């Protein structure tokens, strides 16, 4: 017998006793469908399109979310209202490709696209995971209540274009300020 | 034998087979629940009441999988190997006496028969690892062979003490001789047999042939579906067999007050199975050299020492 044998037996018993004590410990498992843990407010889940305080669509169809999306899962088609305000004609997110990285939310200049604390969106086919605009657009303002993009950007009225008001700076021509 | 006798024999074989398979299935569920109990988890609790139908779900899943044979495998051996493992365990149960009159066969060399079958068991694992033709499987199979050889020696030697005390190789007579359970007379032999038994069934802390962390899944890396299920069944039947053998050889089998013999046998076996599960969740896997050290440098001399003491004391007692 080598010298370590007594301590080895003590250590063996220590291991056994430790696991045995855990029979009475609190379970770490959460029985999920019955018990739902509260999700943090910044949880990156299902993507929604929000409205501004006036109930108009915030989205101005700038394509930035579509451009920044690393998996190319956002597809939209811009169109214009009679008063010149842009909005997406179609807005489609393929949630079977979406990785919920939140880049679209960061890219959005009008805080329109937002990620919500909801992940329960299983479907039996890929097609059902492609959400159209009707499924994405919600009635509320989401995480940023009171924000209206046009309060900051201004709107053109008859006889006065954007930037022609007193104290306004004229808009940048984005075709000339490319790097 | 007459036709009725044949039919009765066949029916009893079928019944025992079915019962053993059922016990194996329940053990797979019980092990997961008990591991979960000792690890602050819940374990499978979805299929049926308390998750009791989990084995059914598992079996359905495994059976409905594709019977895949890797293109680089030795097809014939690969298919046969998983059958050997549960078969040897099932055959061994023929000689295990459950109660005073509950046994299928009373061989006069039952103990040798059991040892021989447990040696054959290694062929299933080793050939499975060899035929898979992958490095993980091969390493697992080789380890299995080395482990079996190292631990069969102390296992057999520990049993010689039991045979000396009872004067018989028949398991039924060994139990009948245990008015006082042999664990009292052979404490060292009991420990050696139990540890070797764990090593023989490839259970933690001796699951080197499987060794998930190092060898993916060891000898059954390339196995899936029903063939994998056979390996798994073999493992659980092996645990059941070792527990039953320890009960028969050291814990007095069916002997016990108040309750009927079968119940005592079942209770003792169950306690040993729980010990197997408990050890699995508590102890880390031995390193390969530690395994060999333990087998050759500690267990084998201890078994020989036990044999010597038993022989000397037995000699004096028999004289007196």
UniProtKB/TrEMBL annotation, chain A:
EC top class named in words: translocase
Membrane topology: Peripheral membrane protein
Keywords recorded for this protein, A-Z: 4Fe-4S, Cell inner membrane, Cell membrane, Iron, Iron-sulfur, Membrane, Metal-binding, NAD, Quinone, Repeat, Translocase, Ubiquinone
GO biological process, one term: aerobic respiration
Chain ranges of the 4Fe-4S ferredoxin-type domain: 49-79, 89-118
Reactions catalysed, as given in the entry: a quinone + NADH + 5 H(+)(in) = a quinol + NAD(+) + 4 H(+)(out)
Binding-site residues, [4Fe-4S] cluster 1: 59, 62, 65, 108
Cofactor dependence: [4Fe-4S] cluster
Subcellular compartments: Cell membrane
Presence of the UniProt keyword Iron in the record: yes
The protein's Enzyme Commission number: 7.1.1.-
GO cellular component terms attached to this protein's record: plasma membrane
PROSITE patterns, per database record: 4FE4S_FER_1, 4FE4S_FER_2
One term of GO molecular function: quinone binding
Binding site for [4Fe-4S] cluster 2: 69, 98, 101, 104
Cofactor-binding details, from the entry: Binds 2 [4Fe-4S] clusters per subunit.
Pfam family name, one: Fer4_7
Primary role: NDH-1 shuttles electrons from NADH, via FMN and iron-sulfur (Fe-S) centers, to quinones in the respiratory chain. The immediate electron acceptor for the enzyme in this species is believed to be ubiquinone. Couples the redox reaction to proton translocation (for every two electrons transferred, four hydrogen ions are translocated across the cytoplasmic membrane), and thus conserves the redox energy in a proton gradient.
Quaternary assembly: NDH-1 is composed of 14 different subunits. Subunits NuoA, H, J, K, L, M, N constitute the membrane sector of the complex.
HAMAP family reported for this sequence: NDH1_NuoI
Family to which this protein belongs: Belongs to the complex I 23 kDa subunit family.
Protein name: NADH-quinone oxidoreductase subunit I
Species per Swiss-Prot/TrEMBL record: Nitrosomonas communis
From TrEMBL, chain B:
Catalytic activity: a quinone + NADH + 5 H(+)(in) = a quinol + NAD(+) + 4 H(+)(out)
Superkingdom classification of source: Bacteria
Major localization listed first in the record, in broad terms: membrane
Membrane topology of this protein: Multi-pass membrane protein
Annotated transmembrane regions: 6-26, 76-98, 110-131, 151-171, 180-199, 229-251, 258-278, 298-318
EC number: 7.1.1.-
Keyword list, A-Z: Cell membrane, Membrane, NAD, Quinone, Translocase, Transmembrane, Transmembrane helix, Ubiquinone
InterPro entries for the chain: NADH_UbQ_OxRdtase_su1/FPO, NADH_UbQ_OxRdtase_su1_CS
Pfam families in alphabetical order: NADHdh
Compartment annotation: Cell membrane; Membrane
Annotated GO MF terms: NADH dehydrogenase activity; oxidoreductase activity, acting on NAD(P)H, quinone or similar compound as acceptor; quinone binding
Protein task: NDH-1 shuttles electrons from NADH, via FMN and iron-sulfur (Fe-S) centers, to quinones in the respiratory chain. The immediate electron acceptor for the enzyme in this species is believed to be ubiquinone. Couples the redox reaction to proton translocation (for every two electrons transferred, four hydrogen ions are translocated across the cytoplasmic membrane), and thus conserves the redox energy in a proton gradient. This subunit may bind ubiquinone.
Family, as annotated: Belongs to the complex I subunit 1 family.
UniProt protein name: NADH-quinone oxidoreductase subunit H
Gene: nuoH
């Amino acid at each position: 017998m080598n010298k370590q044998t007594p301590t080895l037996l003590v250590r063996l018993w220590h291991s056994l006793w430790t696991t045995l004590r855990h029979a009475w410990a609190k379970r770490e498992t959460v029985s999920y469908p019955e018990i739902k843990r509260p999700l943090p407010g910044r949880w990156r889940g299902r993507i929604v399109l929000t409205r501004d305080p006036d109930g108009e669509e915030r989205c101005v169809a700038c394509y930035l979310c579509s451009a920044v999306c690393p998996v190319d899962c956002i597809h939209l088609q811009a169109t214009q209202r009679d008063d010149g305000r842009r909005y997406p004609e179609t807005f489609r997110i393929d949630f079977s490709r979406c990785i919920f990285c939140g880049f679209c939310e960061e890219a959005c200049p009008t805080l329109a696209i937002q990620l919500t604390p909801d992940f329960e969106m299983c479907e039996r086919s890929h097609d059902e995971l492609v959400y159209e605009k009707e499924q994405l657009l919600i009635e509320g303002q989401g995480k940023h209540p009171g924000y209206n993009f046009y309060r900051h950007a201004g709107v053109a009225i008859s006889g006065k274009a954007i930037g022609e008001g007193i104290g306004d700076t004229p808009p940048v021509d984005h075709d000339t300020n490319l790097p | 034998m007459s036709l009725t006798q044949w039919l009765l024999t066949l029916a009893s074989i079928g019944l025992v087979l079915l019962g053993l398979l059922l016990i194996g299935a329940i053990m797979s569920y019980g092990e997961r629940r008990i591991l979960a109990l000792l690890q602050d988890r819940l374990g499978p609790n979805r299929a049926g009441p308390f998750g009791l139908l989990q084995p059914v779900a598992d079996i359905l899943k495994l059976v409905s999988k594709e019977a895949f044979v890797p293109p680089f495998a030795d097809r014939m051996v690969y298919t046969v190997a998983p059958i050997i493992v549960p078969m040897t365990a099932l055959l061994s149960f023929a000689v295990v006496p459950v109660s005073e009159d509950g046994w299928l066969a009373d061989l006069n060399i039952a103990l040798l028969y059991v040892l021989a079958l447990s040696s054959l068991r290694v062929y299933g694992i080793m050939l499975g690892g060899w035929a898979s033709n992958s490095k993980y499987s091969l390493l697992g199979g080789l380890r299995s062979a080395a482990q079996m050889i190292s631990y069969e020696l102390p296992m057999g030697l520990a049993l010689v003490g039991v045979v000396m005390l009872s004067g018989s190789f028949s398991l039924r007579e060994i139990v009948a001789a245990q008015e006082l359970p042999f664990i009292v007379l052979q404490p060292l032999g009991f420990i050696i047999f139990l540890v070797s038994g764990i090593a023989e069934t490839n259970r933690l802390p001796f699951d080197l042939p499987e060794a998930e962390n190092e060898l993916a899944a060891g000898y059954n890396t390339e196995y899936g579906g029903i063939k994998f299920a056979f390996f798994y069944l073999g493992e659980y039947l092996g645990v059941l067999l070792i527990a039953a053998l320890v009960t028969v050889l050291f814990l007095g089998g069916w002997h016990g007050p108040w309750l009927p013999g079968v119940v005592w046998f079942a209770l003792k076996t169950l306690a040993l199975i729980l010990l197997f599960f408990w050890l699995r969740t508590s102890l880390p896997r031995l390193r390969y050299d530690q395994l060999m050290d333990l087998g050759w440098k500690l267990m084998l001399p201890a078994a020989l020492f036990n044999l010597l003491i038993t022989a000397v004391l037995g000699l004096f007692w028999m004289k007196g």
